[in-house]
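Follow-up to my earlier ticket, as requested here are the two runs.
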Amino acid sequence: MSSFLSINIYAQVIEISVVDSYSKPILGYEVFIDGILKESNLNQKTSTFNVTLNEKVEIKHPYFEIFSFALPNTISRDDTLKKIITLSPKFQEFDEFSVIGSKFKEVFDEKNEFVIDYYLYPKESQVLLTKLKNGTHLKLIREGATIDSLAMNFKAESLFLDALGNFFLFGEKDIHQFNIVNDKFIFTQSDEIDLFNKTIKDAVSLKANCAVYEKFSMLNQLYSLVKIENGEGKVIYDYLEKENYERASHFYNKTVNYYMTIIPEKDNVILMGLWDGDLMTLNGHPNNELEQLGINTNEKIMAMTSWSDKITSKPINVQSFGLMNQLLVLNGENDSIIHINYENLNVIKAIPSKAHLTGDYFFDYFYDQIYMITDTKGIKQVYKLNVNTGESSLIADLSEIHQPRNIKVINDQVYFLVLDKNGFNRLVKVN
């Protein structure tokens, strides 16, 4: 760690990572210190600079609310303060739609109904999960008209579509499977979320004779595709980002060593044999004797575990999709597209992508197409991937919209959610 001296007033080294509410990096922000621009047009995932104690730091971005903070007096000058900053989106003023109304169209315009989540369905239809007053509702919408609607008797939180095309509705503890039959919602079964996470969540392909799952290990720096057949697993593809793993291991071990040094045996979950290996479970075990002296040990442990978990151990940029006739691996670490045959699960070919693979994708299950979402200084664009040539073609430019979220695509038609000035989610389609 390092520190800098200037006229007997030391400057603190601070390292920040700026993300949105989905923990995705935000680029193109500016850093102001006591109202003076310090850094501009920051396009790296982390930024390091010096701040004197009691100076006010502000993070500004045209599409997000200003975030400000000051350094705590308790921090040591020998430490590099690492801080993860989450920015909140600015609300969309919807009078802009009257100006660009030919380009964007509201799909669901119930003004007092909040769209929690949605999914796209054939025949110009949408499955909506909405909140009205104190209840949640599941709705099937077609061309603005409600085809079917069910009030939920539990707190529904999100929607999911599995590798077989089954819909799932998440509650707080359970998950509920449903399908659409003759334009009606038909619920089939309910399970605990833990069981769903083990059997469905990470499945890329579910066939009659075997299933293929994606898995991250080695501090999320090793990606593997695993075939499960008759209860046995076999790796059919893997990729290790070695340098990232070494860096993640360094911060992981540093956090564990600090915990072992500062937390007494009676409170130490590692020494008690209760630790599951997850750094985040080390939070909430303060050294009470040091706490009485005004030393907040738990605050530093929380900062170290959060940095390790969200930054250095962030999963590498590799994802897989189960298309109708093959498995596809999109490796954004080396910008390659790997084709895997279903018949024998061997790699058929690997072709280079002609554009950087961002890691932000949407798979259109119904039309068997993968789309990629790019974010350049807060401006989002949607591209259609040609997985056979490595080329991508722009199908939607969302630069006129402040922070479009939950972008989905069906048959090249792009939809997204955006907050209005009253704080309600609005579902919008790109014409």
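Run two:
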Amino acid sequence: MSTSTCEQFIKGLGDLEVRGVEHNFGWEPPGSLTTAQIPAKWVLVPRGTMATWTLEGGASTGILNQVIVVAVIPIAQGQYATNLIATVKMFDNLWHAIANCDLDTDEVAISKLWGNLAITAELEIDGTKHWAVVADVFGRGRIPNVLE
């Protein structure tokens, strides 16, 4: 059985290596974080929009959307300027990882990714607020002709 475009998309972004991330939780957001685990990365439940099915060109899955979260440092830890600089560095690292991510295979094609990244100081995990980078990532997928 071939991998679906959506499965490939969320697995690819869940497995995405981001420089500086100490722990990758993949698809399971953490219930708590220790200092040794941060910066920590995970992905949230994906979303998507369906497009058209064609007999000649295969099936277009439309636009897929996945949110990637990287918790960088607890707000109460360290100085504001130091925490902000560390979070901006992680923003750059995540930006670079997404820009260079290639999810294409012989079975499924996912075009170049695009999205929006934001820094927040409001990510709460187990009662502790963290500085974080949140990326809303989009990609367009296509499954090759299903009649072949």
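The only thing I checked on run two: The CA atoms of residues 19 and 93 lie 6 Å apart. Let me know what else you need.
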